[in-house]
Design a protein that fits this description.
The complex is a heterodimer of chains A (308) and B (226). Chain A has 308 residues and is of the alpha+beta class. Chain A is built from eleven helices and four strands; from the N terminus they run H-H-E-H-E-H-H-E-H-E-H-H-H-H-H. Chain A is elongated. Chain B is α/β, with parallel strands linked by helices. Chain B has a domain of 65 residues. In chain B, 33% of the residues lie in helices and 26% in strands. Chain B contains seven helices and ten strands. A six-stranded mixed sheet of chain B has the order 6-7-8-3-9-10, sandwiched between helices. In chain B, strands 2-1-4-5 form a four-stranded antiparallel sheet, with helices on one face. The chains are: A alpha+beta (308), B alpha/beta (226). At the A-B interface, helix 1 and helix 8 of A face helix 2 and helix 3 of B.
């Protein structure tokens, strides 16, 4: 298609859209609703991921060291753990810090503190709190600790115990729940997206249905299929771009308003800051789906009436 | 130039709309096809436009077997033919000017050609002052004149007009017939269908009479004979 034809198709599509009046307005409206649904699904999925991540971050596995273990040995173990690909972070708590935390937590509990004082010295162990990138990886981290016990100078293991086995059930169940929720969430998102896409398709087809006689005449006047379809595709793409711009514009006040009200409730997830930090993503998704929906729906709908 | 070779067209289930028609039309002829509604006049034109395919027989345009044309080549063939319809069939969201220009654009003519030819044709059909009007702002006669303008703008070898005066009052009918006669005088083959006695008699040229799908009369210097 040379430049002259391309220019004509472009101009003609823009004119058809502008002269479409209420039909163009209605398709833009439906497309706007469709894209608004798609964008809220993006937010929903982000909120779901955020919540699951927050829960996941609360889980860790701790390795407790024998009281005779030197800090140097423990830090060597820490370094080894950090080099594992499954490990997200490792933090070291010395015996003194554990004791201080313990005292602080039981500051109002005279009896416990008295018992602690009577024991004399520090009965608490130093520990490493290990956080995995994914809950399902705790098992391999635990078995790594057990399979390669860090040795102290005299040949005995310096790791006293790993609390994985105690937490195993909870961790496994949580890993399963997170995976299931993510899958169900994705399925729900896809179903809603599909439903709204079908509605937008039907609307554009209806708009083109009203032009079916026009399409037949164009064929009889000697226009090629590409030349007839082109302007419809252009009009469809214009519809998509306008609808996507409307949604992107409306999202800012909408997320600002709801974000402020719901951030606490969502555990710190703020819709407005998500919108700002992920603007490029949302812009891409909305413009992309708008252009694709408008264009593809137009191709399919116009093709139906081109059989003359 | 045009040759219908033993053409039969049946629509599924019903009897044939056109039955065993053999007809040839020479260049520069002006042919009126007359008959009651349902006689097969419009079907005959649709077969020539390749809008319909014959059940039996073949339709030739010069040496081209029209039904052998692949779908992708149809639009090239149709550019040789200008089509005028009873119900005008202008594109509603294009102005009078744009409706005529569309046929040129579709044929790939340049912007400069369009800018000179379209005003000339508007002048010819006497509607230069209505160039910016949309079809719903034009009267029936005006719409049909625009439709004729669209049909002749690419200087086709044939004009096919299916009941072009069917929705017009006598004055507009007269105008349209005069324009078609003028086009024919300039060397274009014209084929029209009609059941208007006055139109046929005013043209006074070859008349092909159809009845129940068959050609029953073919008079070189015809009058309306039903």
């Amino acid at each position: 298609m040379d430049w002259m034809i391309f220019k004509r198709v472009l101009m003609s599509g823009a004119k058809d859209f502008a002269r479409g009046g209420s039909v163009s307005a209605a398709t833009v409206l439906i497309m706007t609703v469709t894209l608004a649904i798609i964008s809220s699904l993006v937010f929903l999925f982000a909120l779901l991921s955020f919540t699951l991540d927050t829960i996941r971050d609360k889980v860790d596995v701790a390795a407790y060291f024998v009281t005779t273990a030197s800090e140097e040995d423990i830090l060597a173990v820490k370094q080894k753990l950090e080099s594992l690909p499954q490990v997200a972070s490792v933090s070291y708590t010395s015996a003194e810090e554990a004791l201080a935390t313990f005292r602080e937590r039981h500051a109002s509990d005279e009896l416990t503190l008295q018992a602690l004082d009577e024991l004399g010295g520090n009965p608490l162990d130093a520990s490493l709190e290990i956080r995995a990138k994914d809950p399902s990886q705790y098992e391999s981290i635990a078995s790594f600790l057990q399979a390669s016990p860090a040795l102290s100078a005299d040949g005995a293991s310096i790791i006293d115990r790993v609390n994985y086995t105690q937490n195993k059930d909870v961790i496994d169940r949580l890993a399963l729940a997170i995976r299931a929720t993510r899958q169900v969430g994705l399925a729900v998102v896809l179903i809603f997206a599909l439903a709204s896409i079908l509605i937008a398709f039907a609307t554009i087809r209806l708009a083109i249905y009203s032009s079916r006689d026009e399409i037949a005449v164009m064929r009889l006047v000697g226009a090629s299929n590409a030349y007839i379809q082109g302007p419809f595709i252009v009009a469809g793409i214009i519809t998509g771009v306008i609808a996507a711009s409307i949604v992107l514009l409306l999202l800012w006040p909408a997320t600002l308003y709801t974000g402020a009200k719901t951030a606490d409730w969502f555990g710190g997830f703020n819709l407005a800051s998500y919108y700002l930090s992920h603007f490029a993503l949302l812009f891409g998704i909305l413009m992309g789906s708008g252009v694709l929906l408008g264009g593809v729906a137009s191709v399919l709908a116009a093709r139906k009436y081109l059989k003359v | 130039m045009i040759y219908f070779d033993k053409v039969t067209k049946s629509y599924n289930g019903n009897g044939p709309a056109v039955e065993d028609v053999t007809l040839s039309i020479a260049p520069k002829e002006f042919v009126s096809i007359v008959g009651h509604s349902g006689a097969g006049k419009t079907t005959l034109l649709k077969l020539l436009m390749a809008e319909e395919r014959p059940t039996e027989g073949a339709v030739f345009y010069e040496s081209i077997d029209v039904n052998d044309l692949p779908f992708s080549a149809l639009h090239h063939y149709r550019r040789k033919i200008g089509m005028v319809f009873q119900e005008f069939r202008l594109i509603p969201n294009k102005t009078a000017y744009e409706n005529i220009a569309f046929a040129m654009e579709a044929a790939g003519r340049t912007d400069a050609e369009i800018a000179t030819d379209v005003p000339y044709i508007l002048e010819l059909v006497n509607l230069a002052d209505k160039a910016a009007h949309f079809p719903d702002q034009l009267s029936g006669g005006e719409k049909q004149r625009i439709a004729i303008g669209r049909a002749i703008i690419n200087q086709p070898e044939i004009i096919i007009a299916d009941e072009p005066t069917g929705m017009l009052d006598p004055i507009n009918t007269y105008d349209v017939v005069e324009i078609l006669k003028k086009i024919n005088e300039l060397g274009t083959t014209v084929i029209i269908t009609t059941h208007n006695r006055g139109v046929v008699d005013a043209i006074g040229r070859r008349v092909v009479t159809m009845d129940r799908g068959k050609v029953v009369r073919d008079d070189a210097d015809g009058h309306y004979a039903l």
